[in-house]
Amino acid sequence: MIFEKQDYQQSCIDNITSLLANFDFTTHNPQELKACLQDFYQHNVMPVTTLSEKLNVDILMETGTGKTFTYLNLIFELNKHFKQNKFIIFVPRKAILESVKQNIKLTKDYFYSEYKKHLKPYIYTDSKSQSQIINHYIKNEDELSVLILTNSAIDKKDNLLNKNNENLFNTKSIFENIAALKPISIIDEPHLLKGEAFNRYFSKLNSLYFRFGATFPKEGKKPNDKEFALSNMIYCLDSISAFRAYLVKQVKVHTIGSSSTQIFLKSYHARDKKAIFSYTQSGIEKEQELRLNESFSQLNGATLLKVEKDKAYFSDQSILDKKGESYHLDEDELTALLGKAIDLHFEKEQRLFAKGIKALSLFFIPNIADFRGEKPFIKSTFEELYKAKREELLKKDLDENYRAYLAQDFDESGNLQVHQGYFSGDKGSKDDKEAAGVKMILEEKEKLLSLNTPLRFIFSVWALQEGWDNPNIFTLAKLTSSSSDISIHQQVGRGLRLCVNDKGKRITHRFMDFDDDSFYRLNYLDIIVSAKESNYIGNLQKEIEDSSYILSDKILSKEELSDLLNGEQDLIDDFMYILRKDLELIAYDKEKKAYIIQAPIYESIKDDDKIKELLGESFPKVLEFFKAKESQSTNKHDQVESGDKEPDQVTIRPNLAKDFKELWEKINQKAKITYQDIKEQDIIDQAAKEFNKTNIEKESYTYERKRYDAQQNIIITEDSITLGDIDYQVSFAKDMQNLLLDFSKEAKLPLRFLLQIYAKCDKEKFKNSPKKAFTTLRNIIKDQIHHNLLQCISYDFSTAKNESESIFSSGTLPRHTLGRYYESGKPADNYLYEEIIYDSKIERIIITEDNEKVDSKTIKVFAKLPKLIIPTPYKHYEPDFAYFLEDSNGKKIFFVCESKGYDDENEISKNEMQKIKYAEKFFTQLSKKLENDNIQIIFKKRINKQTLLECLRQTQGENNAN
């Protein structure tokens, strides 16, 4: 597999190394760690800033985003920066231990290429491994090594590690000797390691430890939740954040079963003689309260006669049971679920195979006997269905390579070899093929991902939980109810990781050229569940929201406002009332039991005097919160959606479609960037010249005296003195080569190019402050490259059509491609769509403004663009609106507009302005290409204060002047 540094993983590691810059690794003092955290929180925003009295540092990372890779990388960084050699990884299950062991093996060469060191793993299993731990891990203190343990290795007095050993030549136990090394611990999936016995022995280590998890308990749910809740948080990549950043798959849920409404007795209150019934309608869970002798519409008006502990009796002889966690599926239901799973697998397998991606499917089944027993119904039914559906598929016109791929489904004896099971207790097997299959599922990830391996359907009874996942799980079928301690989010987590192709390359958003539709065409997980799973989608969404600390940009919670408004409930209620009633920016959704954001709040309240007066000093903080909330992501897709129905659609007006199609086909040109005459020497000279102009001041030593105030639970600085300048002369000369090499990797610049710039730079500035000097140089180089590329860049327009040219042919578009917000009302008559869908206030104004003429030109049609991608050296750029204008002489003008919700052009970020500059170049060259067709293309950014008329007149004036 190919391993690459991911920005988000590096951010996590950078946060940790920054936090520990002043931590004393010889003492491992909790109060010193607390001081480091307080300083970190002054400069960094974290959703949880609770401090503990322990030595934990908490990292929240969503399942499938590479926690294991991140903490293995962290081990090398802690060794590099702080000379730490000894580490322990604690895991709750054998499957996770095997996964960690496999990851160390797979990443061995990658980390050696980065750090020129190997990490030696030690795994405790028996007396032989105990000897290895004593003679190498304990006695060789200079070796970079990690001990991997399950909690069961230390949680009992009689464990071998808790006994002494004659080879240690002291009276301490093996574990006490390990603790004396002050190893740094990593706890993987801490929510599964909350046992009192484990924590009693673990606390004997009394050294720094990191808790890496996708799930942490929130305070107040259970008695010991507070002790294990998030604290000392240093990095947060929760479920919602991971999805917004395109780091996990999208989830589609398919519900199979009776279309009739499932109705249950939820609770009965004898004192009030009333019962509450729950039922699912169109995937939404609803409730209805009934008193005795009242009629129930869901049962055709039958009246409630009596209620017992677990049953409710009605006048039509029907009996409703109390809703429980478990359910049983009959053979017909299991067959339907298996059939749907195979259909979905084949449906996507052909498309994925063409991209060199192997599709895997995972089935959770009720019992081992259903797959391994004498009469294994699920296994037999799967084989029967698979063979039949495969035969139907082979009758179609298939790609020859894919046909050859299907030909390896049977072994030499004619036995189907596409499926295998893994179950708890699978350590050995009399059946060699069965044993090989188990080993491949658990340990041989690369072999399982190979297109030369026919195995691609995996069956398990919940044994494959945390610690096991596979990037190429695309279908997950749930053929049984799960125990209450297995969350839906954990089940889904087995298939959230982004897929990889046959070359080991992960199919990231960047790999797909930042094209959302192409990315999600490959990276989505189909989940098949029974209709007996009450409100599976709603429960999954709720679990995601409950476990996330950065809430959905579509939902506003009182908890979020409580943090901003110091818990003043009356103020929160008044503010929510204005947002809901006066401004109509939010609405309460009874089904979701949440406030849904219906329009951009930041733009609507920033100039509202009533809200300014109400919120007082808190107003700037609240304003900044909504600005951040509404600009968190450009990802417009839903994280979880129903696979049983089409997404909400926007209607294209047929009378305008013809004119817009002409505009669309002209501007939606496939183009690639070409570079001509890049003046590398000019970049080198100018970068060094600009750097030498900067003032890099010397760093200084500071002495601080601090005191911990136990009553107030704060650390107070009593004295602070500057002692003198830091002299980097000797250390910089010694480490210069390594620093330049690291800088080259981090800045992603060729070392040769960087060395030429460095040779022309004033070296004294680096000796004053190496960190500040390299940061300054990086920014200067970036600016100079951008300036030079802008002069040298050109666009080569292809005659081939863009895939998205057919986007308007169906007469509708998925709503999410146009925006997050919906407003009832009528858009302008010449607007392409029937509905008003938008992302910002300026977009809403543009859609509804009545502009049929601009001077002598007629606006025939205009539209918000769902997908117009312009390649730039810095990601792609997507402008917002396009206008088709025609003058009295029949000359056509295509005006492409980038709407910005700013009052002043200076508010537009530097990166955004750079991309706009490339877009201007793109459209200038495209216009030149089309000038023989009597077509002019104009591109312009439009800010809040400008009307369309002003924007167009300004543009026409600039063009005439040129």
TrEMBL record:
PROSITE patterns: HELICASE_ATP_BIND_1 (PS51192). Residues 48-234 form the Helicase ATP-binding domain. GO terms for cellular component: cytosol. Keywords: ATP-binding, Helicase, Hydrolase, Nucleotide-binding. This is DEAD/DEAH box helicase. It comes from Campylobacter upsaliensis. PANTHER family: ATP-DEPENDENT HELICASE IRC3-RELATED, TYPE I RESTRICTION ENZYME ECOKI R PROTEIN. SMART domains: DEXDc (SM00487). Signal peptide: none annotated. Gene3D superfamilies: P-loop containing nucleotide triphosphate hydrolases.
